[in-house]
Amino acid sequence: MNFGILDVLQLVGALGLFLFGMTMMSEALQKVAGNKMRAILASMTKNRVLGVLTGVIVTSIIQSSSATTVMVVSFVNAGLLTLAESISVIMGANIGTTVTAWFVSLIGFKFSIADIAIPMIGFSLLFIFSKNDRRKSIGEVMIGFALLFIGLEYLKNSVPDIKANPEMLHFLTEYTNMGYGSILLFLLIGTILTVIVQSSSATMAITLVMLSQGWITFEIGAAMVLGENIGTTITANIAGLTAKTNARRAALSHTMFNVFGVVWMLVVFYPFMNLVEWMVGGNATDGANSLYALSMFHTMFNVTNTFIMIWLIKPLEKIVCKILPEKKEENEFALKFISTGMLPTGELSLIEAEKEIEVYAERTHRMFDEARKLTLATYDDRNAQKYAERVAHYESASDQTEGAIADYLYDIDATPISTDLKNRIRNYLYLTTEIESVADRCYNISRSVVRRNSESINFTEAQNAKLSEMFDLIDKHIVALELCVKSNFTDEAARKEIFTIEEQVNELRYALKVYNIDQVNKEAHSYSSGIHFMDIIEECESLSDAITKIAREVKL
Asked: What pLDDT was estimated at residue 490?
């Protein structure tokens, strides 16, 4: 049989079309369901059974266990899920991914769905050109679905007919009759193939095509399925490389869960195969029955493994915690949530940005605390230099954080997202810029104190008391800002408090201006001391204005 370069290219192109269709359908489904994903994960992971069910539902919807697992790792990183909750969701994701296999074996090989694929693409245009983002995404789902099965049809027609030309794979007979050796070899092949393709669902579909065309036997196909379960864990581990410890633990638990399942399955491989054959009610080496048998094996393996491991979540959690202990020292200036990169949808990526902005606001509050300590210390206090250096470090980190968050938000904005998300991104960009302005005012306070210290001037006890009064108000102001940020500006009480405190700050500033003039005239403190005193008061008032501006302008 002749199988030239054009045939190879056609085979590769068919595989590419299949993968593109699957990716497009998966991403579009995520966009349709993305805004509900956070709510589902938050409400349905309170116990292990519901966690598993959540994983099944989410993966069945978005048709990608890798996407679900990456999402879970990111949510653990963001503190939205605990490690134990994430493990149960990952277990469910392994079951949810078996839906694709059944879909392909029941529909893809029974009749030519490619015959209706082109009309489906034509019908989807009614949705694609809609101004409604949700309808647009539904159109993309339909196109992805159509391209997936067009690719599958081409894939079936592009592979050589082994039954008519058995000599083509004669060399494989040397590797398929080695008992467990053959099983281990094709397990490795399945792992490598999934690592390359980065989708266990896609690799499963490829395995089904190979089985339907006689390239492999049912047993070899089952071995490849076991390998695919290991290979699919790579994506989450890559996503967790730059994440916090708990996120890396979630990725590792996925690997350990799947590897454990493969190990016990290898022990009972042949009895389990017999059980599957009995369940499908026929010879698993025969035609469509072999496809059903492989899909059943895939499902039964993941369901059984989950049933075993669901009772071992706590021990598994302890093991991964021991393997990956918590770092003794975390860099307080490092990015906490957006360091893992973009998530599958804009909605989910925006959650990461929201959490990072929360941390940014908290860090700015700590910067203000250091500036306050510096201000109330004497010029000869040995800790004064330390406080000044801390504020300077915070200022440098603030500039870097602002840039990183802005870049991340621009990246989200460049993806296909809804108008609502675009508006929220613009508000977050503004919020990030203004938080940096608050940090600048804290730094300016520090600089004013450094100038005072360079002149060997100390504030009087009375001046420090007045400054403390102002600092207390500013502290309350920043706390109210943090509450607004954490609630996505839905906390109306906190927003109102910001405006109330601003009035108090303005009144106090005016009173302290009068006080300072009076004290200088009475020679209670020097003119130079009074200048530095008012510089700090003015910076506090500017800081207050920046916070109020945020509350007035940001509407999420």
From this structure: 87
Residue type, 223: A
Considering the domain architecture, whether residues 119 and 251 belong to the same structural domain is answered as: yes
CA distances from 45 to 87, 189, 352, 367, 488 (A): 10, 35, 19, 36, 23
DSSP 104: I
Q: Is residue 328 part of a domain?
A: no
Are 108 and 209 in contact, with CB atoms under 8 Å apart? no
Choose among 196, 219, 309: nearest CA to 259. Answer: 309
Mean predicted confidence (pLDDT) in 304-311: 89
CA distances from 206 to 100, 101, 104, 243, 357 (A): 11, 10, 10, 32, 43
Which value, to the nearest 10 degrees, does the dihedral of the CA atoms of residues 514, 518, 521, 524 take?
A: -120
Calpha distance 482→477 (Å, rounded)? 9
Return the structure tokens found at 226. 């076991």
Q: Does 317 share its domain with 359?
A: no
Question: Distance between CA atoms of 190 and 212, rounded to whole angstroms?
Answer: 17
Rounded Cα distance between 117 and 104, Å, is 15
- Rounded Cα distance between 240 and 7, Å, is 39
Count of the separate structural domains present in the chain: 2
The whole domain housing 51 covers 5-323
Tell me how far apart the terminal alpha carbons of the chain are, to the nearest angstrom: 65
Q: Taking 60 as the threshold, does the pLDDT of residue 344 lie above it?
A: no
Tokens of 96: 């949810």
Other CB atoms within 10 A of residue 447 CB: 17
Query: What span, in angstroms and rounded, lies between the C-alpha atoms of 420 and 405?
Result: 19
User: What would the two tokens of residue 35 be?
Assistant: 């805004």
Q: Per the structure block, which two tokens stand in for 287?
A: 């035609």
What confidence score (pLDDT) does residue 160 get? 54
In a domain, 330, yes or no: no
DSSP symbol at 327: P
* Pair (311, 388) in one structural domain: no
pLDDT in tens, 181-219: 788 888 888 888 787 766 677 777 778 777 777 777 888
Selection from 531, 513, 543, 375 nearest residue 447 by Cα: 375
Report the 10 Å Cβ neighbour count for 191.
22
Residue that the structure tokens 């893992």 belong to: 340
User: In 3D, which of 217, 223, 145 has the Cα closest to residue 184?
Assistant: 223
Predicted local distance difference test score (pLDDT) of residue 544 = 93
**540: confidence class by pLDDT, cuts 50, 70, 90:** very high
Q: Would you say residue 116 has pLDDT above 80? A: no
> What are the pLDDT digits (tens) for 36-72?
655 565 555 567 777 888 788 777 766 666 667 766 7
pLDDT band at 129, cuts 50/70/90? Answer: confident
pLDDT tens by residue, 347-356:
667 877 888 8
Q: Is there a single domain that holds both residue 416 and residue 291? A: no
| 173 lies in the same domain as 311 | yes
CATH, residue 523: 1.20.58.220
pLDDT tens for 488-503 read 888 899 999 999 999 9
